[in-house]
Request: fold
Amino acid sequence: MTAFIDLHIHTTASDGSDSPFQVVEKAHLLGLQAIGITDHDTVHGVAEALEAGSRIGIEVVPGVEISCQWKRRSIHLLGYYFDLENPGISRLLEGMRRGRTQRLPKMLAKLRQLGIDIDRKEVEAEAKGEAIGRPHLAQIMVRRGYVSSFEEAFEKYLGYGRPAYAQRPRPTIAEGVQTILDAEGLPIIAHPLTIDAPIREVLQDICPMGLQGVEHLYPYQYLSGRSQEWYDSVPRRLAHLKQLAEQYDLVLSGGSDYHGTIEGKAPLGSAQVPYEILQGLQDRYQDLFGHLPNSA
Ligand code: AMP
Ligand code: FE
Ligand code: FE
Ligand code: ZN
Reply:
């Protein structure tokens, strides 16, 4: 029987609604064999998950998701198995969380001008952790009836280029890849089909920087706001991605991008990732760094 895993999961440490412990419990109920904790810009959920995982009997892969800049576009970069104490990556993540905190009052001021009055304290309470995100704002806007859905909050106000959008500083993709490698981690591009550029062009540019993999199994059907044509093109583009991954010697990864009840609707485990995928990551890690990752 194939064992399944899920290597892309958010917790209350960033914009997920389940605590790391709850994620481990739910993964256990689903019979998942391994899970990767990949919060935005923080690893503060990892320790709790590792502890619960070892108690309950689920392999927990430490990770993170970092929004990087590539040619004025945004690329989400996953990092796995890096040294959680590494000063370089800790500094980078800390800077990104500061960028989030500093962006918040700018967005709140813009919302206020649009007649939407949300207090900073309310968002901080909603966020629980230190990685305050637009999804937290969107949640509050839905609850208060300013919008009728999470998606509408992004479409009308919070999305890129919308009236309450404010930029936060992002590292370049080169910097993101190098920082993860320097911390002995595997840099892997998240949900590559969401990048607004031909995937061949993306990989041509980024592989020489030291990219190690791409997320291949991902439940794109749960993303909102794309055209039917876009959804229909997913299988063809995934086949192409797999070819390119072979050509560029990239490992294939996979995960659901689970956020609990916040944002998106992909259920835990919905990417249907077989355990062999994790074996592939661990083999690559050993090739690259000469030893197995600590938590493997
Ligand atoms: P932030 O990290 O605060 O910049 O917010 C980014 C998060 O918001 C990501 O997790 C995205 O999945 C989510 N997001 C961004 N754009 C949209 C959108 N148009 N609709 C729904 N969610 C979005
Ligand atoms: Fe998110
Ligand atoms: Fe992402
Ligand atoms: Zn994610």
Remarks:
- The first strand starts at residue 4 and ends at 9.
- Residues 87-113 form the longest helix (27 residues).
- The pocket of fe (iii) ion (ligand 3) is lined by residues 65, 76, 190-191 (CB under 6 Å).
